[in-house]
Structures are given as structure tokens and as C-alpha cells.
Specification:
The protein has 12 helices and 20 strands. It is α+β, with helices and mostly antiparallel strands. It has a domain of 233 residues: 3-Layer(bba) Sandwich (FAD/NAD(P)-binding domain). Strands 6-5-14-15-16-13-17-20 form an 8-stranded mixed beta sheet, sandwiched between helices. A 6-stranded mixed beta sheet has the order 8-2-1-12-19-18. Strand 10 and strand 11 form a beta hairpin. The longest helix has 27 residues. The N terminus is likely disordered.
């Protein structure tokens, strides 16, 4: 079967949180949209789980924030801790209450956002969400992008659009097909994400909902969600990842956190490699990149998904003006100009700094860093400056100031 869309809407490839928010934003400007997603169902695996204040403010436009707040866990403080002694630097987001409507992190899985967004899209005439439709190939010229798509029955059809938005994630088919330079590197260690319903907060005194923790032989993090704790664990030095993932080794790592007589009940395990990469240009002709398709970073600090949504916001401030004839295509160059350096200098650098801090093994350097952070956390002015950056408010302010 060959099917052609004769009045081309904007095509978004990828129905993750970034692609779906992009679709909602374009709809708010009365623009028709097709969203192509190769999977038959919305993402449901272990991914991002932290929403920063400015992201919550953005999602307010679609009445999504209120629904996220109903199911999520408000986290007004987060910590960097020494496990054996319980010493900590605790950052309280109340100090940025004058700067944001939402002075906290919201802990809730991104799949909840995807579900809320798809439910909303189902009632929109302007957005055509096509689950199980896979982009196979594409080509562009000065006027349009033409795509070949496979539907769930295996039939092929063509879609033509004036602009294609690549929101297809870290392994972006669009980016790799274009052989674009995705500069950066992979970190040597593999992170092992484990979820369990064990109540760590009842066994570790003064624990926050978000904790980055040093212990004698390594590091781990504990992030609390409404019904589970997410534990980020690491292989031991010289330990093969296949060995580290064996149930007995997962159990031994969890027992180091809180020893107990009975085994831990593990809900899910997901190993993943961390990359730090970025495109030079988020626009290539009529193809525009957002989120992980444009940049990937360490998840430490929870800036990946949030940064992608901020990309979508910036792009959708500009694209409607071009499509409604208010300005020419050159305005889209401002998208890269505003967002690429912020991703590079704020998101990637901060995420790298967060990761490097927790991977530090030297006891003296750890002690010095903890004392430095405690000094910042205990000084309201310094804490506000620190939290405005870690909450991604500074990056957005800088981005919007670029012209």
C-alpha cells in the first residue's frame, strides 16, 4: 500500500517525552503534526525519573504538572553523603522559592509523562500519533523531507513534510543515517540500575529522596520514587559486567548499603553505558534534532530528559513563526545558537562534574569536596546560586538571552 499525506504536517520521529511534548506545543500553535513511533506501546522501561522546576513550569501549559504532582514525590532537599559516617551536604530548594513556582524536584518516572501526554493527544484533532510505525528511510531537498515508513502490518507508505523533527533518542536512526559527527566519548564503567521496594529511608538516618553516596570502596545513588527506590550501582574494579549482573552480585551490592537477614526483592535491573556526546548543529536543512538525538550526558543530576524538553520548548517558539510566515527559515538557526552551547557548557559539563565527583576514590579529595559542598549548602546566598544552576534555571536564562 502507498499512502501519501497531501497537506504535509510537521513530522516528529519518536514518541518519548521530548517528542510528545514537542507535539503538544506545536498543536498549541494550531499546527498539524504526525508522530511516528516504531514501538507499539509507550515506553515503560527504566529511564528518567527527575523533573526539575523549570520543566514543571513548562508542562503547566498543558495541565500535566498538576497530574504529575498527584502521583509524584516532591523532593525539596537532596544530598551528597558519606555512607559509613552519615556525614552529608544537604541542599534545600526552598532557597530558590523566589525564582520558581516549583522549588523542588519531582520524583516520578518519565513513563507517567508519556502516558499523560498520549492521553491528551488522543483528544487532539491536529496530532496524529502513529504507534508501531517505523521510519525506514528519508531524503530532503530545499522544499521538503520525504520519508518511507513501515506500518504495523509491514506495509510501506510515504510521508512528505516541510520539517522533520528527530526525537528518536540516543541511538537516533536519523542522526546515524546522516552520518553526523556526534562528538564525545563513552565512560568506562557500566551503571546498573536496580529498583526495589525496600524502605531505605527507614534504615538510613536522615536520608533524603535523592542521594549521591560515597562508600569506602566505591559509590552508589539512591533515588526514591512513590513506590520504589532506584539504586544506581557499579561493577567492582576489574569485574566483568556479565558477572556483576548475576543475582548474587546484585544482592551483595545491596547488602553493602543496608545489611539485612533476608534477600532483597528486586523489581527490575537495567545495565547501561553512559555517553557524553553532542551534535555541532541541531539543524541540518529541514531536519531538526531535539533531546538525546542532539546530545547525551551522564544521568547524574537528572538533566537529560529535562534538557530535551527545554530543547523542544526553544524549537517550538521558533518553528511556528516560520510556518505561519512571520519570518524566514533562518530563524531556526537561532535554535542551535541558543541550545547547543547551553547543552555543552551547562548540561554536559555539569553532568560530567557530578559524575566525576562521585567516582572520586581518594579519601582526602572526597573529604575536601564534602567540606566545600557543606559550606555552599549552609550559606543561603551560595546555595541559591548553586541550586539555580543544578536546577537548570541558569541554563534556560542564558539560552533565552542569546540572540
Amino acid at each position: 500500500m502507498k499512502r501519501t499525506v497531501t497537506k504535509p504536517p510537521i513530522v516528529i520521529v519518536g514518541a518519548g517525552p521530548v517528542g510528545l511534548v514537542t507535539a503538544l506545543r506545536l498543536d498549541s500553535f494550531d499546527l498539524p503534526v504526525i508522530v511516528l513511533e516504531r514501538n507499539l506501546e509507550v515506553q515503560n522501561d527504566l529511564r528518567a525519573s527527575t523533573f526539575h522546576p523549570p520543566t514543571l513550569e513548562m508542562l503547566d501549559d498543558f495541565d500535566i504538572t498538576e497530574k504529575l504532582l498527584e502521583v509524584g514525590l516532591k523532593t525539596s532537599t537532596w544530598q551528597i553523603r558519606m555512607h559509613e559516617t552519615g556525614e552529608k551536604a544537604e541542599f534545600d530548594l526552598d532557597v530558590i522559592a523566589q525564582d520558581t513556582k516549583y522549588p523542588f524536584r519531582l520524583q516520578v518516572e518519565q513513563r507517567i509523562l508519556c502516558k499523560l501526554a498520549t492521553d491528551q493527544i488522543a483528544d487532539l484533532d491536529n496530532v496524529d500519533l502513529r504507534m508501531g510505525h517505523e521510519l525506514l528511510s528519508f531524503e530532503q531537498n530545499d522544499a521538503a523531507v520525504t520519508m518511507t515508513v513501515k506500518n504495523p502490518s509491514g506495509e510501506l507508505y510515504e510521508v512528505m513534510t516541510t520539517y522533520m523533527i528527530a526525537a528518536d533518542g540516543a541511538n537516533s536512526f536519523i542522526r546515524t543515517s546522516m552520518d553526523l559527527n556526534f562528538e564525545g566519548h563513552a565512560y568506562p564503567e557500566t551503571t546498573i540500575l536496580v529498583t526495589t521496594k525496600f524502605p531505605f529511608h527507614e534504615h538510613i538516618e536522615g536520608l533524603s529522596n535523592v542521594n549521591y553516596i560515597w562508600f569506602e570502596n566505591g559509590t552508589f545513588s539512591l533515588l526514591r520514587l512513590p513506590d520504589v527506590w532506584r539504586c544506581s550501582l557499579y561493577s567492582e574494579v576489574g569485574q566483568e559486567i556479565e558477572h556483576a549482573l548475576e543475582p548474587a552480585n546484585i544482592e551483595s551490592k545491596l547488602q553493602l548499603i543496608v545489611p539485612k537477614d533476608t534477600p532483597y526483592e528486586v523489581e527490575e535491573i537495567r545495565p547501561y553505558r553512559i555517553h557524553q556526546r553532542i551534535l555541532d548543529d541541531y539543524r541540518v536543512g529541514r531536519i531538526l534534532f531535539v533531546g538525546d538525538a542532539a546530545h547525551v550526558n551522564s544521568p547524574s543530576g537528572g538533566m537529560g530528559m529535562n534538557g530535551g524538553i527545554h530543547d523542544a520548548w526553544s524549537l517550538t517558539e521558533k518553528l511556528p513563526k516560520v510556518l505561519h510566515g512571520e519570518t524566514d527559515i533562518d530563524l531556526l538557526d537561532l535554535y542551535t545558537k541558543q541550545r547547543q552551547p547551553i547543552a555543552k557548557d551547562e548540561i554536559l559539563k555539569q553532568a560530567h562534574k557530578n559524575r566525576s565527583r562521585m567516582q572520586e576514590r581518594d579519601a582526602v579529595k572526597r573529604r575536601e569536596e564534602l567540606q566545600r559542598l557543606q559550606e555552599i549548602a549552609n550559606d543561603p546566598a551560595k546555595a541559591r546560586e548553586f541550586l539555580l544552576r543544578s536546577s537548570m534555571i541558569v541554563g534556560l536564562t542564558k539560552s533565552r538571552a542569546i540572540q
